[in-house]
Protein 1
Amino acid sequence: MAEHISCQEVIELVTDYLERALPSEEASLFEQHINFCDGCEWYLDQMRATVAAVGRIEEEEVPPETRDKLLTAFRHWKRT
Amino acid sequence: MTEIGVQNSAAGAEDVELVARLRAGDEKAFEALVTRHYATMLAVARTYVKTRAVAEEVVQEAWLGLLQSLDRFQGRSSLKTWILAILVNKAKTRAVGEARTVPFASLAREADEPAVEPERFRGPHDAFPGHWRSYPANWGASAEVAAEDHETLRVTMRAIAELPPAQQTVIRMRDVEGYSSDEVCAALDVSAANQRVLLHRARSRVRAALEAHLDG
Amino acid sequence: MIAYKFLRRDGTSVFTGFRWPLSADAPGAWVDAPIDPCRSGIHACRPTDLPYWVGHSLYEIELDGDIATEQTKVIAPRGRLLRRVGAWNDELRDAYTRMCADRAHELALGASPPLEQWDAVIEPSVPEGPALLGFVAARIAEERYGAAAYDAERARQSAWLVERLGL
């Protein structure tokens, strides 16, 4: 087994790690590396913060024409 | 691959209330629902049909389909899962006879895209190859605060809007809407591994945009 | 502060490859950081940290200066190896590996339904050594009982090591 993986390799594994999709050997190496290397630990936290930020985005505008069509359809459906 | 509509989580109290309001003809509720899901539904539809205009039509048809079958909603799956199933059905119907120019699955196999520029790591002949030249910043607790900041949200939204379509669709479905990995794979007809690659690249790009904004 | 450090068979650091000054009967020479090019500091384990770092050889290390404590390690600006912990030999290392493997089987097969896929990973992991097995056991505990169970399993591993090593 490789004794360790480099930072450059670790950052490419972050998503698989968060998805719990790494095989145990790689996950174990990943975890040891994160425990040891502050840079990669902070990078992992940045990725978590990114996911959290994406989860908070505000609703985007629906094109007015689309919105009007849908509201009209809704009113029609209400009546039937 | 899991079929959409298989119970990932049943409808919660919020969903039940929302459906009741729709049945009662509450326009505000309907408008809010449409607004909340519009961007993601459009992105998903876009993966099936050729033009944005057609994708918009597919989304409209999906909402109509939802209203028409509202009586049949039993809360066995969440409203969000149900909407997705209707959307994908409509999109596939529309896509028949309209061959996709690039199959979605192949979009994940585009050229390698490193999550962080290679220059930020020590080279292969360095004593510590592949290690950071200098560490990324420790956002720590300040990241929580930053996420509430309006400017940060704006940066995040713009970063998402600038993503290539396949990446944008996956990150919207997973991280904005909270669909499960299985649901995304079923809706987009991609493998779990491909989905993860797209998610990884999308998140990496958004992180880089946030880093540029927060760290200057 | 007295802490612990695992090194490779040849006395080098697992992550940085740094060759630690060793002496047969006396403490090794003091080493000043920076060794790690990214960040200053000598990394070491408290007894509770041992399971995360399990390696070939274990040493007692004396740390000096302002010591930073982190979740799974401590960091100091200088340190010197005092002595090798002789109790951590091939036999004990194998016994620890087997203990973790048995725990992993117990956790995986005791679940309802059994965690077959996890169970299948255990024996093939044994030749890879104690660090991996400790990780696998803790992960199976987590799969079964949640995040807190991961930490609890690690604490169990640490207690086993502390007792057998007389730390």
Protein 2
Amino acid sequence: MAAVEALRRRSVPLLLLAAASVICIAVSVSTGSVAISVGELWAVISGGGEPLHRTLILELRLPRSLAAFATGGLLAVAGALMQVLLRNPLADPYVLGLSGGAAVAALLCMLAGMPPAIVSIAAFAGALGSAVLVFGLAHGRGSWTTTRLLLTGVVVSSGWGAVITFMLAVGPTEQLPGMLYWLMGDLAYARSPWPALIILALTSLILLPLGRSLNVLARGPMQAAALGVAVRPLEWSIYGSASLLTASAVTTAGSIGFVGLVVPHMLRLVLGNDQRLILPAAALTGGALLVLADTLARTIIAPEQLPAGVITALLGVPTFLYLLYRSR
Amino acid sequence: MVALYRFLLLILLTLPAQAERCVVDDINHTVCLPKPAERIIALSPGATELLFAAGAGSKVIAAVTFSDFPEAAKALPRIGSYNRFDMEAIVAAQPDLIIAWKEGNPREQVAQLRDLGLPVYHGDQRDFQDIASTIKRLGVLAGTEQEANAEANRFLEGIEHFRQKYEDAAPVRAFYQVWVNPLMTANKNHFIGHALTLCGGENIFGELPRLTPRIGVEAVLAADPEVIIAGGMAEDDPGWLDAWRPFSNLTAVQRDNLFFVPPSTLQRPSPRLLDGIELLCRNLETARGRR
């Protein structure tokens, strides 16, 4: 009976968030430079409609919205995992230098004039490369503590930051806008949304049964070990999956900030700290937030476009501060 | 006897006037040189081209990166890039004239060069007339008035030729793609915009406030241009234009009006604009023929 009650307690917020996500995607698909009414939207969905509307919705807006949803979800889940792993409220998906590694590889490819597909692959390789580097350095010969991991990550990030600044300083002028937009995070680079969506769905499924162990780990490795959790393998799989999630997100849309740091915190303030609820809720909320931010980014000053990363922060900062203030 | 004195006096009066050469630059500063400049530093690729156009190419002693036209400019020593230059190298080169770029050069650095007593000419060319008048003024400062005036007039005549030829041509709605990622275009105040107007083109993003605005694909589809012209690196990467082909609703795609114009001939203020304009006009003419 209690189990059913707990399940219901978790499923109500999740259903609400899922509904909100669908609404966000619908709003995103029906807004843009060309006005499309609900009726016309329905015509396109049911397989008819004007050719221009079909192109706009099916080839431009929908893939982009789904890519935004997947990216936001990936980042929020990765952020939640990192905060559990490092037991540090300031941890976000990029704290271990993944965005820096991805950015250095991606910008190098842009400087060399590579096509966008190669830039994406390079970003993925750069992110995972940085994760392996940080993991190896933090592992070292001595003990593997989260403090050591965090410190290594922060220092490696600063190193990447310096390399990025150097590349921006010597890069040719006409390349600069492209490089800056990539660094700010921008969905215009998103190609097919499917890889990111599939990775998000798969990781969510894999993490679901781990929720209880994650809850225990969040209290500290000692308690977790005492309660029979195999701490080391769990920590390594969190590290690995968070890196994979972040790498996929960075590959899809560049380094979008803020979502990964703040969405898990927001949810904890509202829903409590149960990872079985927080992780799927983070996937939905992060996704919806980024869909909303991207829709605003491409419509506020249309036809001119803003990078979505700017809007995520502008939307998220006041919301988060309000929740934090209210929770005192 | 009186006539002779008068003649000598006249010579004495005119001598300094002849030696002292003054022009007013684009920020209304008067730049005066005691004698024709012999050691000129150009702080932008455009300034380098204009100096060569004014017949003063042999007097340029240093330039910034990407100064790649004409061929001789590539061999010039570099003193940095247009937005970060090596002050020590500039001062050590002992120039007697520096050509700065009002919009592109860091103001503090240029002001510092002026404070050091170096003669600085500030250039800011916004239309075809500015280019011609800059060439003439550079000619005065470098003592190459004859070549400069000839080149400036050749340029203006070229522009006039296109103006007359396409004045009454049917307007063509055109989209000029400056860059692909992010998608960028140029407004009517850019030289690309001026060139489009000259050829009887109608820039679909001409009225946007920024010089090179960043836009969305959707806005292009909504405006449905008759012609799409790509600059940037489209020459090496045909994907720039091919990326539009899947949008079969676009008039430009249906009529195969997807063209490439090398950006170097349309983006810098120099007489080379004539080459870019000729190609651009020919492309728009092709588009008119496909109606």
